[in-house]
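Submission checklist for the structure archive. All mandatory fields must be present; incomplete records are returned to the submitter.

[x] Identifier: Copper-translocating P-type ATPase
[x] Organism: Comamonas avium
[x] Residue count: 292
[x] Sequence attached
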Amino acid sequence: ATPTSIMVGTGRGAELGILFRKGEALQLLKNAKAIAVDKTGTLTEGRPALTDLEVLQGFERAQVLALMAAVESRSEHPIARAIVEAAQQEGLTLPELTDFESITGMGVHAIADGQRVEVGADRYMRSLSLDVTVFDSTAQRLAAEGKSPLYVAVDGKLAAVVAVADPIKASTPDAIAALHALGLKVIMITGDNQRTAQAIAAKLGIDEVVAEVMPEGKVQTIERLKQAHGHVAFVGDGINDAPALAVADVGLAIGTGTDVAIEAADVVLMSGSLQGVPNAIALSKATIGNIH
Ligand code: ADP
Ligand code: MG
Protein backbone atom coordinates (compact mmCIF):
# COMPACT_ATOMS: atom_id res chain seq x y z
CA ALA A 1 0.00 0.00 0.00
CA THR A 2 1.17 3.53 -0.67
CA PRO A 3 1.52 6.09 2.13
CA THR A 4 -1.29 8.05 0.45
CA SER A 5 -3.74 5.13 0.47
CA ILE A 6 -2.97 4.50 4.16
CA MET A 7 -3.59 8.18 4.91
CA VAL A 8 -6.90 8.08 3.04
CA GLY A 9 -7.95 4.84 4.77
CA THR A 10 -6.98 6.17 8.19
CA GLY A 11 -8.96 9.35 7.53
CA ARG A 12 -12.01 7.40 6.40
CA GLY A 13 -11.66 5.26 9.56
CA ALA A 14 -11.70 8.37 11.75
CA GLU A 15 -14.99 9.41 10.11
CA LEU A 16 -16.40 5.98 10.97
CA GLY A 17 -15.17 6.18 14.58
CA ILE A 18 -12.32 3.72 13.95
CA LEU A 19 -9.01 5.13 15.17
CA PHE A 20 -5.94 3.47 13.70
CA ARG A 21 -3.17 4.12 16.20
CA LYS A 22 -0.78 2.32 13.84
CA GLY A 23 -1.03 2.59 10.04
CA GLU A 24 0.21 -1.00 9.88
CA ALA A 25 -3.04 -2.22 11.45
CA LEU A 26 -5.02 -1.01 8.44
CA GLN A 27 -2.79 -3.16 6.22
CA LEU A 28 -2.83 -6.23 8.47
CA LEU A 29 -6.55 -6.38 9.22
CA LYS A 30 -7.52 -7.62 5.76
CA ASN A 31 -5.39 -10.76 6.41
CA ALA A 32 -7.29 -11.73 9.57
CA LYS A 33 -8.69 -15.27 9.48
CA ALA A 34 -10.14 -15.32 12.97
CA ILE A 35 -11.37 -12.75 15.45
CA ALA A 36 -10.97 -13.56 19.12
CA VAL A 37 -13.31 -11.58 21.36
CA ASP A 38 -13.38 -10.98 25.11
CA LYS A 39 -16.86 -11.61 26.55
CA THR A 40 -17.50 -9.25 29.45
CA GLY A 41 -17.75 -5.63 28.31
CA THR A 42 -17.07 -6.52 24.68
CA LEU A 43 -19.90 -8.89 23.69
CA THR A 44 -21.91 -7.96 26.78
CA GLU A 45 -22.65 -4.64 28.47
CA GLY A 46 -20.16 -5.32 31.25
CA ARG A 47 -22.87 -4.37 33.77
CA PRO A 48 -24.03 -7.61 35.35
CA ALA A 49 -26.97 -7.70 37.75
CA LEU A 50 -27.67 -10.18 40.53
CA THR A 51 -30.48 -12.52 39.43
CA ASP A 52 -30.49 -15.44 41.90
CA LEU A 53 -29.45 -16.17 45.46
CA GLU A 54 -30.08 -19.55 47.03
CA VAL A 55 -28.87 -20.22 50.59
CA LEU A 56 -28.31 -23.54 52.29
CA GLN A 57 -30.13 -24.44 55.49
CA GLY A 58 -28.70 -22.67 58.51
CA PHE A 59 -28.06 -19.45 56.59
CA GLU A 60 -30.30 -16.45 56.19
CA ARG A 61 -30.64 -14.87 52.73
CA ALA A 62 -30.41 -11.20 53.79
CA GLN A 63 -27.48 -11.90 56.05
CA VAL A 64 -25.52 -13.73 53.35
CA LEU A 65 -26.22 -10.92 50.87
CA ALA A 66 -25.04 -8.30 53.38
CA LEU A 67 -21.84 -10.26 54.13
CA MET A 68 -20.96 -10.81 50.49
CA ALA A 69 -21.80 -7.22 49.54
CA ALA A 70 -19.49 -5.99 52.29
CA VAL A 71 -16.64 -8.03 50.81
CA GLU A 72 -17.45 -7.01 47.23
CA SER A 73 -17.61 -3.33 48.19
CA ARG A 74 -13.79 -3.42 48.06
CA SER A 75 -13.53 -5.14 44.67
CA GLU A 76 -13.44 -3.39 41.30
CA HIS A 77 -14.76 -6.37 39.33
CA PRO A 78 -18.08 -5.76 37.48
CA ILE A 79 -19.53 -8.68 39.47
CA ALA A 80 -18.82 -6.78 42.67
CA ARG A 81 -20.93 -3.79 41.68
CA ALA A 82 -23.87 -6.11 40.87
CA ILE A 83 -23.77 -7.60 44.37
CA VAL A 84 -23.33 -4.27 46.17
CA GLU A 85 -26.24 -2.76 44.20
CA ALA A 86 -28.49 -5.72 45.06
CA ALA A 87 -27.78 -5.26 48.77
CA GLN A 88 -28.43 -1.51 48.50
CA GLN A 89 -31.75 -2.13 46.73
CA GLU A 90 -32.80 -4.35 49.62
CA GLY A 91 -31.84 -1.60 52.05
CA LEU A 92 -29.26 -3.77 53.83
CA THR A 93 -26.63 -2.31 56.10
CA LEU A 94 -23.19 -3.67 55.26
CA PRO A 95 -21.17 -5.01 58.19
CA GLU A 96 -17.70 -3.82 59.07
CA LEU A 97 -14.93 -5.25 56.93
CA THR A 98 -11.25 -6.05 57.43
CA ASP A 99 -8.54 -8.16 55.78
CA PHE A 100 -9.92 -7.84 52.25
CA GLU A 101 -8.04 -9.69 49.52
CA SER A 102 -8.80 -10.24 45.84
CA ILE A 103 -7.52 -13.36 44.10
CA THR A 104 -7.38 -12.66 40.38
CA GLY A 105 -9.55 -14.91 38.26
CA MET A 106 -10.92 -16.66 41.35
CA GLY A 107 -12.76 -14.41 43.78
CA VAL A 108 -12.46 -12.30 46.91
CA HIS A 109 -12.33 -12.81 50.67
CA ALA A 110 -12.37 -10.74 53.85
CA ILE A 111 -13.45 -10.74 57.47
CA ALA A 112 -16.96 -9.27 57.65
CA ASP A 113 -18.72 -8.86 60.97
CA GLY A 114 -16.10 -11.12 62.54
CA GLN A 115 -16.73 -13.94 60.04
CA ARG A 116 -14.45 -15.12 57.28
CA VAL A 117 -16.35 -14.66 53.98
CA GLU A 118 -15.26 -16.01 50.59
CA VAL A 119 -17.02 -15.20 47.32
CA GLY A 120 -16.03 -16.56 43.94
CA ALA A 121 -16.04 -19.12 41.17
CA ASP A 122 -16.41 -22.88 41.70
CA ARG A 123 -12.66 -23.28 41.16
CA TYR A 124 -12.06 -20.84 44.01
CA MET A 125 -14.25 -22.93 46.34
CA ARG A 126 -12.42 -26.10 45.24
CA SER A 127 -9.09 -24.41 45.97
CA LEU A 128 -10.41 -23.92 49.53
CA SER A 129 -11.35 -27.63 49.66
CA LEU A 130 -15.05 -26.75 49.69
CA ASP A 131 -17.40 -29.16 47.94
CA VAL A 132 -20.02 -27.37 45.81
CA THR A 133 -21.72 -30.46 44.36
CA VAL A 134 -24.85 -29.78 46.45
CA PHE A 135 -25.48 -26.87 44.07
CA ASP A 136 -24.55 -28.73 40.86
CA SER A 137 -28.04 -28.94 39.36
CA THR A 138 -28.86 -25.33 40.30
CA ALA A 139 -25.57 -24.05 38.90
CA GLN A 140 -26.06 -26.01 35.69
CA ARG A 141 -29.54 -24.56 35.22
CA LEU A 142 -28.29 -21.02 35.88
CA ALA A 143 -25.37 -21.43 33.48
CA ALA A 144 -27.64 -22.84 30.76
CA GLU A 145 -29.57 -19.56 31.06
CA GLY A 146 -26.33 -17.68 30.35
CA LYS A 147 -25.96 -16.58 33.98
CA SER A 148 -22.67 -16.84 35.89
CA PRO A 149 -22.90 -18.86 39.11
CA LEU A 150 -20.77 -17.83 42.10
CA TYR A 151 -20.49 -19.31 45.55
CA VAL A 152 -20.33 -17.87 49.05
CA ALA A 153 -18.64 -19.51 52.02
CA VAL A 154 -18.93 -18.26 55.61
CA ASP A 155 -16.43 -19.40 58.23
CA GLY A 156 -15.31 -22.25 56.00
CA LYS A 157 -18.82 -23.55 55.26
CA LEU A 158 -20.53 -23.32 51.89
CA ALA A 159 -23.49 -20.94 52.38
CA ALA A 160 -25.02 -19.97 49.04
CA VAL A 161 -24.99 -20.02 45.28
CA VAL A 162 -25.50 -16.68 43.54
CA ALA A 163 -25.98 -15.82 39.88
CA VAL A 164 -25.21 -12.66 37.98
CA ALA A 165 -26.31 -12.00 34.41
CA ASP A 166 -24.75 -9.53 32.00
CA PRO A 167 -26.95 -8.52 29.05
CA ILE A 168 -25.63 -8.96 25.51
CA LYS A 169 -25.13 -5.58 23.78
CA ALA A 170 -27.88 -4.87 21.24
CA SER A 171 -25.26 -4.39 18.50
CA THR A 172 -23.46 -7.71 19.07
CA PRO A 173 -25.59 -10.18 17.00
CA ASP A 174 -25.39 -8.13 13.78
CA ALA A 175 -21.67 -7.57 14.26
CA ILE A 176 -21.07 -11.33 14.52
CA ALA A 177 -23.20 -11.93 11.42
CA ALA A 178 -21.10 -9.32 9.58
CA LEU A 179 -17.84 -11.03 10.65
CA HIS A 180 -19.18 -14.37 9.41
CA ALA A 181 -20.21 -12.72 6.12
CA LEU A 182 -16.55 -11.64 5.74
CA GLY A 183 -15.56 -15.31 6.10
CA LEU A 184 -14.05 -15.00 9.59
CA LYS A 185 -14.19 -17.39 12.51
CA VAL A 186 -15.31 -15.80 15.79
CA ILE A 187 -13.82 -17.11 19.03
CA MET A 188 -14.89 -16.08 22.53
CA ILE A 189 -12.26 -15.87 25.30
CA THR A 190 -13.45 -15.48 28.88
CA GLY A 191 -12.59 -16.10 32.50
CA ASP A 192 -16.21 -17.01 33.08
CA ASN A 193 -17.64 -20.47 33.64
CA GLN A 194 -17.53 -22.98 30.74
CA ARG A 195 -21.29 -23.67 30.61
CA THR A 196 -22.24 -20.00 30.89
CA ALA A 197 -19.83 -19.12 28.08
CA GLN A 198 -21.21 -21.98 25.93
CA ALA A 199 -24.79 -20.80 26.46
CA ILE A 200 -23.96 -17.23 25.42
CA ALA A 201 -21.85 -18.43 22.47
CA ALA A 202 -24.67 -20.67 21.24
CA LYS A 203 -27.12 -17.76 21.37
CA LEU A 204 -24.73 -15.63 19.29
CA GLY A 205 -23.59 -18.31 16.81
CA ILE A 206 -19.98 -18.00 17.98
CA ASP A 207 -17.71 -20.66 16.44
CA GLU A 208 -15.39 -21.52 19.32
CA VAL A 209 -15.28 -20.91 23.08
CA VAL A 210 -12.25 -20.74 25.34
CA ALA A 211 -13.61 -20.36 28.89
CA GLU A 212 -12.26 -20.33 32.47
CA VAL A 213 -9.13 -18.61 31.18
CA MET A 214 -7.04 -17.02 33.90
CA PRO A 215 -5.94 -13.45 33.04
CA GLU A 216 -2.42 -14.52 32.01
CA GLY A 217 -3.96 -17.33 29.94
CA LYS A 218 -5.40 -14.91 27.38
CA VAL A 219 -1.96 -14.37 25.81
CA GLN A 220 -1.32 -18.11 25.51
CA THR A 221 -4.77 -18.54 23.98
CA ILE A 222 -4.03 -15.90 21.32
CA GLU A 223 -0.70 -17.56 20.55
CA ARG A 224 -2.42 -20.94 20.17
CA LEU A 225 -5.13 -19.43 17.94
CA LYS A 226 -2.45 -17.87 15.71
CA GLN A 227 -0.96 -21.32 15.16
CA ALA A 228 -4.37 -22.83 14.45
CA HIS A 229 -5.89 -20.09 12.27
CA GLY A 230 -3.14 -17.82 10.91
CA HIS A 231 -3.67 -14.10 11.39
CA VAL A 232 -5.72 -13.44 14.53
CA ALA A 233 -7.19 -10.14 15.68
CA PHE A 234 -8.29 -9.72 19.30
CA VAL A 235 -10.99 -7.40 20.62
CA GLY A 236 -11.16 -6.47 24.31
CA ASP A 237 -11.89 -3.73 26.80
CA GLY A 238 -10.44 -4.71 30.16
CA ILE A 239 -7.18 -4.21 32.02
CA ASN A 240 -6.55 -7.94 31.78
CA ASP A 241 -7.06 -7.81 27.98
CA ALA A 242 -4.05 -5.52 27.47
CA PRO A 243 -1.36 -8.25 27.10
CA ALA A 244 -3.55 -10.18 24.62
CA LEU A 245 -4.23 -6.97 22.64
CA ALA A 246 -0.48 -6.48 22.34
CA VAL A 247 0.27 -10.04 21.25
CA ALA A 248 -2.51 -10.38 18.63
CA ASP A 249 -1.68 -9.59 14.99
CA VAL A 250 -4.08 -6.69 15.40
CA GLY A 251 -5.46 -5.61 18.81
CA LEU A 252 -8.73 -3.68 18.79
CA ALA A 253 -9.97 -1.95 21.95
CA ILE A 254 -13.54 -1.02 22.67
CA GLY A 255 -13.47 2.80 23.04
CA THR A 256 -15.59 2.70 26.19
CA GLY A 257 -13.10 0.30 27.77
CA THR A 258 -10.24 0.87 30.19
CA ASP A 259 -7.33 3.21 29.36
CA VAL A 260 -4.94 0.29 29.76
CA ALA A 261 -6.68 -1.64 26.96
CA ILE A 262 -6.81 1.43 24.70
CA GLU A 263 -3.08 2.04 25.24
CA ALA A 264 -2.24 -1.54 24.27
CA ALA A 265 -4.42 -1.60 21.14
CA ASP A 266 -3.56 -0.89 17.48
CA VAL A 267 -7.13 0.20 16.73
CA VAL A 268 -9.72 1.91 18.96
CA LEU A 269 -13.43 1.48 18.21
CA MET A 270 -14.98 4.74 19.38
CA SER A 271 -18.57 3.51 19.00
CA GLY A 272 -18.05 1.05 21.85
CA SER A 273 -19.63 -1.59 19.65
CA LEU A 274 -18.27 -4.77 18.08
CA GLN A 275 -19.72 -3.54 14.75
CA GLY A 276 -16.54 -1.46 14.48
CA VAL A 277 -14.60 -4.68 13.81
CA PRO A 278 -16.30 -5.75 10.54
CA ASN A 279 -16.30 -2.07 9.54
CA ALA A 280 -12.54 -1.85 10.13
CA ILE A 281 -11.89 -5.06 8.17
CA ALA A 282 -14.07 -3.91 5.27
CA LEU A 283 -12.15 -0.62 5.27
CA SER A 284 -8.84 -2.50 5.25
CA LYS A 285 -9.99 -4.58 2.27
CA ALA A 286 -11.29 -1.53 0.40
CA THR A 287 -8.18 0.59 1.04
CA ILE A 288 -5.39 -1.93 0.78
CA GLY A 289 -6.99 -4.84 -1.01
CA ASN A 290 -7.41 -3.26 -4.43
CA ILE A 291 -3.96 -1.70 -4.58
CA HIS A 292 -2.01 -4.88 -5.31
P1 ADP B 1 -13.94 -12.37 33.51
O1 ADP B 1 -14.03 -10.91 33.79
O2 ADP B 1 -13.79 -12.69 32.03
O3 ADP B 1 -15.01 -13.18 34.17
P2 ADP B 1 -11.84 -12.63 35.54
O4 ADP B 1 -10.51 -13.29 35.41
O5 ADP B 1 -11.91 -11.22 35.95
O6 ADP B 1 -12.53 -12.88 34.11
O7 ADP B 1 -12.72 -13.47 36.56
C1 ADP B 1 -12.87 -14.86 36.41
C2 ADP B 1 -13.89 -15.37 37.37
O8 ADP B 1 -13.43 -15.23 38.73
C3 ADP B 1 -15.21 -14.64 37.33
O9 ADP B 1 -16.04 -15.07 36.27
C4 ADP B 1 -15.75 -14.97 38.71
O10 ADP B 1 -16.29 -16.28 38.71
C5 ADP B 1 -14.52 -14.95 39.59
N1 ADP B 1 -14.33 -13.62 40.19
C6 ADP B 1 -13.41 -12.71 39.87
N2 ADP B 1 -13.54 -11.60 40.63
C7 ADP B 1 -14.60 -11.80 41.44
C8 ADP B 1 -15.26 -11.04 42.46
N3 ADP B 1 -14.90 -9.80 42.79
N4 ADP B 1 -16.32 -11.60 43.07
C9 ADP B 1 -16.73 -12.84 42.75
N5 ADP B 1 -16.14 -13.60 41.81
C10 ADP B 1 -15.10 -13.12 41.17
MG1 MG C 1 -14.03 -7.42 29.24
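[x] Structure attached
Curator remark: The first helix runs from residue 3 to 15. The chain has a mean pLDDT of 95.
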